[in-house]
């Protein structure tokens, strides 16, 4: 009788599935576009002493040099860098590729402390009134070890202006990450801006330190969702909502400040943002 009962239930399930099946749209078979299968072995992380992470040689040499969009229309760039030994110069020297005229701009320098950590000297300098679609060279570290870099400004505005975006996600910091970036750089289509969709590092091979040190920014490994509430031009609020027994629990939050409107000329743009112990920067696994 137990069997009969089960069989009835089974028939009911099959009918039910058939009903759902017949209501569903035609099954989609996207086919197979490639037989390529990546190596089953996960690629190893590049060690800290790899060439790609090397501290640049020379006294007070600028590190972590990077740029941020410096205005709304693509004619301004914020150049940021760290000097390790002394504040050094805040000057950026820059020039257009096709020009002999070198310009200079002055930025600011700041430091911060976080528990027993003291940062290097963090410089930010905004250069403005650049030409569109132009390659600029720039130098930082004037007076100590000078390093030169370049960027290309975006093309002007318009509905038929071509623009190439590179797209990369889940990069990690493995030897394969390096291969991916190398291939991107070699791509003849020449990406002008790279949109990077999250996940730069993975904790897979790095066991947690127990007990969690008080300076650690890691909060929890949970599934959930985030909310980003833009309050006004200077303030945004991010909160993390953990899935917990059917309800979403606000498990963490942080205030974010806008670097453009929260003037860089102020002594420390970090003074009430993510670097205080109770508002530490976020590391989430998803
Ligand atoms: C995976 O890595 C192990 C250890 O390095 C090696 O012995 C093995 O041959 C690798 N397998 C493949 C398919 O590359
Ligand atoms: C900071 O404190 C942590 C934990 O006590 C310790 O492991 C680390 O070496 C300290 N770092 C410095 C720069 O003193
Ligand atoms: C580093 O550069 C700064 C700013 O140009 C200068 O004041 C300082 O003397 C330099 N230090 C050395 C050791 O050259
Ligand atoms: C990363 O790739 C570059 C080429 O783009 C190469 O010069 C470098 O040695 C590579 N580094 C590592 C650690 O694989
Ligand atoms: C922007 O929002 C923050 C947070 O709500 C608030 O403290 C600040 O006063 C606001 N600024 C202005 C100009 O309204």
UniProtKB/TrEMBL annotation:
Catalysis performed (reactions): a phosphate monoester + H2O = an alcohol + phosphate
List its EC numbers.
3.1.3.2
A GO molecular function for this record? acid phosphatase activity
Q: Could you say which cofactors this protein requires?
A: Zn(2+); Fe cation
Pfam families (UniProt xref): Metallophos_C, Pur_ac_phosph_N
The record's annotation in InterPro entries points to: FN3_dom, Metallo-depent_PP-like, PAPs-like, PAPs_C, PAPs_N, Purple_acid_Pase-like_N
The signal peptide, as residue positions, is 1-30
Q: Where is the Fibronectin type-III domain?
A: 61-156
Keyword annotations from UniProtKB, A to Z: Glycoprotein, Hydrolase, Iron, Metal-binding, Signal, Zinc
As for family, the record states:
Belongs to the metallophosphoesterase superfamily. Purple acid phosphatase family.
Name of protein: acid phosphatase
Write down the species. Trapa incisa
């Amino acid at each position: 009788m137990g069997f009969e009962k089960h069989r009835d239930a089974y028939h009911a399930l099959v009918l039910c599935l058939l009903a759902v099946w017949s209501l569903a749209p035609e099954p989609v078979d996207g086919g197979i576009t490639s037989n390529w299968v990546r190596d089953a072995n996960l690629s190893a992380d590049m060690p800290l002493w790899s060439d790609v992470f090397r501290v640049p040689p020379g006294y007070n040499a600028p590190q972590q040099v990077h740029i941020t969009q410096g205005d709304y229309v693509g004619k301004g760039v914020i150049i940021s860098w760290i000097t390790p030994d002394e504040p050094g110069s805040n000057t950026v020297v820059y020039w257009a590729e096709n020009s002999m005229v070198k310009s200079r701009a002055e930025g600011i320098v700041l430091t911060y402390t976080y528990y027993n950590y003291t940062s290097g000297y963090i410089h930010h300098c905004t250069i403005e009134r650049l030409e569109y679609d132009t390659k600029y060279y720039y130098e930082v570290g004037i007076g100590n070890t000078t390093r030169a870099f370049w960027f290309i400004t975006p093309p002007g505005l318009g509905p038929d202006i071509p623009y190439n975006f590179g797209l990369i996600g889940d990069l990690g910091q493995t030897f394969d990450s390096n291969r991916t970036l190398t291939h991107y750089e070699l791509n003849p289509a020449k990406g002008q801006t790279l949109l990077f969709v999250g996940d730069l590092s993975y904790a897979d091979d790095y066991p947690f330190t127990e007990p969690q040190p008080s300076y650690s920014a890691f909060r929890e490994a949970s599934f959930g969702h985030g909310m980003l509430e833009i309050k006004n031009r200077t303030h945004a609020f991010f909160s993390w909502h953990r899935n917990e027994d059917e309800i979403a629990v606000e498990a963490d939050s942080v205030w974010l400040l806008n670097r453009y409107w929260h003037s860089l000329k102020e002594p420390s743009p970090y003074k009430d943002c993510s670097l205080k112990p109770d508002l530490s920067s976020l590391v989430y696994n998803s």
